[in-house]
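Chain X:
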Amino acid sequence: MEAQLTTLKQEVIEKIAHATSVKELQDVRVAYLGKKGPITDLLKGMGILAADERPKMGALVNEMRQEVTSVLDERMGQLEAAAVEAQLANETIDVTLPGMPVQIGNHHPLTKVIEEIEDLFIGMGYEIAEGPEVEKDYYNFEALNLPKGHPARDMQDSFYISEELLLRTHTSPVQARTMKKKQGEPIRIICPGKVFRRDNDDATHSHQFMQIEGLVIGENIRMTDLKGTLDLLGKKMFGQDREIRLRPSFFPFTEPSVEMDISCFKCGGSGCSICKRTGWIEILGAGMVHPNVLEMAGYDSEKVSGFAFGIGAERIAMLKYGVEDIRHFYTNDMRFIKQFERSEG
């Protein structure tokens, strides 16, 4: 039986040495040390030996089992280390290769324009005011000196939900609501938001667009304050070398009213296709708040005054970014949107 043990030990150690993978070594362990393996069979066959031979043979079998187990564990460690090294070699990353660019979303061009204007006016002490897009006729028209039947309403034909409810045609109702709320207190606000008008969509018109309006009310507010504010706005959006001019106009809620033009940023005023050979580009409408509007909101028009202005975000974005069709802002064409994305490598 000792000779059988020696032969078996040599056999299993040889198989351990020739195992080239962890799986092969596990198979050797199961084949020789498992419940059905030859070493276990030897232990089970101890019963046929004489009583005086059992202790000696039991010690020899256990000694061989421990030696085989030790050799197995050592070889297992070698194969596992080799497997880890091979995996690391196969999965090595060349950190000197350039990284893959990561596409990062950016703000919509209209959002960029609105936030740029908001930052300017917040820095001047203005507050941002918001209001409902579904508005009452009173705040959208009547509180702004546009009573029912006023011909100027035709220019702001809108989408009516009922006779007294409509989709707002400008953000001026936010100004009217703020004046009602302030009850005679000074006001300095801008009102950005979406507005709606019944219009035929084309390259320069849309049934919905973004508008930013401003309102200042207080004592001794003059036309020169309005002009200085608009001059700062024009330079902020189109460059410090821009000049502005104010032309007389008419709006029911301001008196006097003006249209503001800026000197053409393309030709510098010499005349080009963008400014239609005039050297000037129309930007916005503005004026001093009409006394009737002040009185309807509870202000004493003899003691306080104010100015207001309104500008279309699309108008600014089209000029600023060279967009030729207002519909690009709303059709979600990825070829257009991706022009405003940024990448980080």
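Chain Y:
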Amino acid sequence: MVTTRLHLRRRRAFGWLEPTGVLLAITLEGFRKTWNVRRWGAEYVEQCWFVARVTTLPVMLIALPLGGTIALQVGQIIRQIGAESGTGATVVQALVTQVAPMAAALLISGAAGSAITSDIGSRRIREELDAMEVLGINPVHRLVTPRLWAASTVGVMLCSLIILAGVAGGFFFNVVQGGVTPGSYFGEATSLLQLSDLLITLFKAWVFGFIAAAVACWKGMTCGYGASGVGRAVNRAAVIAAMLVFAANYVISTLAYSLFPPRI
């Protein structure tokens, strides 16, 4: 009885190790044949178009009010100290360093990641993955590799789009409604930024998109059989991807601020 209880406690305490190992194994296996672009290039282009198609419009709808919200909130505080021209710098700094890569990652994990999980999960319950293995085709190389690179590529593009749309939203609420001159808004917009900030942001977007796609493929390839199993996999993939993205953002931001201190 005591042995059984100890076994259950160990299983509960270290139960996360097995799925973590499977996630890493699928991700590394997807990397292993990356050099063979001819085998997954066509699927990569198709997945890039799919991910961009399902995320571009939501990104625009989120980024415009997001930049405006930051401008309104910051503008109220800055206006009290008589530094309205600094709103542009604050909006751009917040969008570039934190908001843009996180928003792109969450949209990829929520919209594209859900579709990837359901697609691969449906292939699993129809036993298409087993059929690929019987035919000598590695399903990870055929399905996972192009999706990893497609999500990370589109993540970088979406991050740039969010920055542009957010700056436009901040311009409207800060210049059109707030009365700040356009010259002051754009003149101060780049005062706090460095080239390293933009490069780190694009790197974040690439990593976050890669994480979202890796989690989506993992949950799809290991989902339970039946429609309910695919549904649970989609839900868990979105939650796990968001948690990993926030954790990765903290790690990358900490290292970035240590290596490249922000400009004052």
